[in-house]
Design a protein that fits this description.
About 50% of the residues lie in helices and about 10% in strands. The protein is built from 19 helices and seven strands. The strands form two sheets. It has a five-stranded mixed β-sheet, covered by helices on one side. Strands 5-6 form a two-stranded antiparallel sheet. The protein is an alpha+beta fold and about 500 residues long. The protein has helices at about 5-15, 20-40, 45-50, 60-90, 105-125, 135, 145-160, 175-180, 280-295, 315-325, 330, 350-360, 360-380, 395-405, 420-425, 430-450, 460-475, 485-495, 500-505, and strands at about 160-165, 195-200, 205-210, 225-230, 230-235, 250-255, 255-260. The protein is globular, with a radius of gyration of 25 Å.
């Protein structure tokens, strides 16, 4: 995908996007049976069935949202594609062909990002040899330890919560098979696992979070947050005569959650740090947002605790906390981003470059996500894309939507034959963009103004940050899935949500 050879890029692209054709028949069967089952239950479509208990409410509302996103992104998408065209014309000269092909997008995205980073570096007075590899520009600034220290600072500043690492008992370790020594002993500290207790200065203990961050044989290969024990309000056990054993007849069952990731392998030396790529830090903070959602909710019933909420809302807290990992103020504060050798915090200009790099060519990424979301809705909508039900094929719809959106497409390809989200998130893929717009709006209105203020004293800024964080906790996170997310977001924002902050961050 990143080869400078257009012919090789095309060959690899066509091979990978025409693979597993047998899955097209499997997908058709899935569409057909989902539609038939939903019809038997009285729904117009599978999408109507799935969305009936989601925040958005209906397929019609999803279409409204996607149309709004498409209209709002037109200008930035057009600008980004023009940048790609100019870059391709410059690189390939007379062989450029006059259009951006789908196999060009990853190559020119990487190239343009590197060129823009180089330009910013020069504008900031950079001299000497410049490394075009973006990851090299930020190498050495991110480590597991600094990432965790950054988390501790965040929960303290936002919520007044202390996040303290504690010893992990042998009976609580689940990576025993790969961390025992030759003598059958578990290493001090429990191998790759770590345990943290959370405590609020007024509310007392809040729960436990385990970190299982590094790969090992046989382990789950993705990154996710898991709830081991949900929080809930429970009645105290009563004595045989019916009286309460304690003075209060209710207390909280404290949550226990785990963040399971596959970050860079940990180092064996106790004096060296495990370094992370920037994308790994984003992943870790994203999952930490999920973990806090589960940890900080207080609901009467455990099946409504934390992330057990509307599926198109639950990514909001995770995207909100992921945003901290690219906020220049937070990055340059000297906690999360600090060079492991020199000990220097990331400079404000370098942190700003990192944030701008994330925004580069985001218009292309967003337009692609809109097409994927529309495709997902079309497959499982009132007129499903199944020839056996009288509809067009999924491949025909895939091509049509790309052409309507002016997104580069190669006829005859069917990348969607390996689009696993159609199974796990059928009719709900829009939820990723949906939640990102809420997170961006909450970030902008509840947090960024208090953190960026230069006229206020440090004390007043800290109070403003705590106020914004407390509102997010007490008006949103605490309710888990027990309250309508539309009401929670409206309360945090003080108004109806807007997609504008989501687009404000694009370069």
């Amino acid at each position: 995908a990143h080869s400078p050879s257009p012919a090789l890029r095309k060959e690899v692209y066509l091979q990978s996007h025409t693979s597993i054709p047998e899955n097209l028949q499997v997908l058709d069967s899935l569409i057909r049976h989902r539609h038939l089952h939903s019809s038997l239950l009285g729904y117009k479509s599978y999408a109507h069935r799935v969305l009936s208990d989601r925040m958005v409410g209906s397929p019609e509302k999803v279409q409204e949202f996607l149309h709004k996103m498409e209209e709002r992104s037109k200008h930035v998408y057009k600008r980004d594609m023009e940048s790609m065209l100019e870059a391709k014309k410059h690189v390939e000269g007379g062989l450029w062909g006059g259009a951006i092909e789908p196999w060009d997008v990853p190559f020119y995205t990487t190239l343009i990002k590197a060129q823009r980073q180089h330009q910013r570096w020069k504008e900031d007075g950079g001299s000497g040899e410049y490394d075009q590899d973006e990851s090299s520009q930020f190498a050495g600034y991110f480590s597991v330890e600094n990432s965790i220290e950054g988390m501790k600072v965040l929960v303290q500043d936002l919520f007044g919560i202390a996040m303290k690492e504690v010893d992990i008992p042998k009976e609580e370790i689940w990576d025993v098979d790969t961390t025992t020594t030759a003598q059958g002993q578990i290493p001090e500290g429990g191998g790759g696992m770590r345990k943290f207790e959370f405590h609020h200065e007024e509310e007392g203990p809040l729960g436990t979070m385990y970190f299982d961050l590094h790969p090992r044989d046989g382990k789950f290969v993705h990154a996710a947050h898991f709830t081991i024990r949900c929080g809930r309000i429970r009645n105290e056990d009563k004595a045989e005569d019916g009286s309460n054993n304690q003075t209060d007849d209710k207390d909280h069952q404290l949550p226990i959650v785990a963040l399971v990731c596959n970050l860079s392998p940990s180092t064996s030396s106790p004096t060296s740090q495990t370094l992370l790529s920037y994308s790994e830090v984003e992943t870790l903070y994203h999952e930490f947002g999920h973990g806090l959602h589960s940890l900080l909710s207080r609901t009467s019933f455990q099946h409504l605790s934390g992330t057990r909420a509307a599926m198109d809302f639950v990514e909001t807290p995770s995207h909100l906390f992921e945003t901290f990992a690219r906020d220049p103020k937070f990055l340059s504060a000297g906690v999360l981003a600090r060079h492991y050798v020199a000990g220097q915090p990331m400079s404000e200009s370098k942190a700003r470059h990192l944030a701008l790099s994330h925004a580069d060519l985001r218009g292309v990424e967003v337009r692609t996500q809109i097409v994927h979301s529309k495709f997902d809705q079309a497959l499982f909508g009132e007129h499903p894309c199944s020839p056996s039900l009288g509809g067009v094929s999924s491949t025909e719809m895939w091509e049509r939507l790309h052409q309507e959106a002016n997104v580069p497409f190669a006829s005859g390809t069917h990348w969607h034959s390996r689009f696993g989200h159609l199974v796990t998130y059928g009719a709900g893929y829009y939820g990723y963009l949906y939640a990102q717009t809420f997170a961006a709006d909450i970030w902008r209105s509840a947090l960024v103004s208090s953190m960026a203020s230069s006229s206020s004293s440090e004390v007043s800024k800290a109070a403003a940050v705590r106020s914004g964080g407390t509102k997010i906790w007490k008006e949103m996170l605490v309710h888990g899935g027990a309250k309508d997310p539309k009401d929670m977001i409206h309360t945090v924002l003080g108004r109806e949500p807007s997609v504008d902050p989501f687009f404000e961050g694009m370069s």
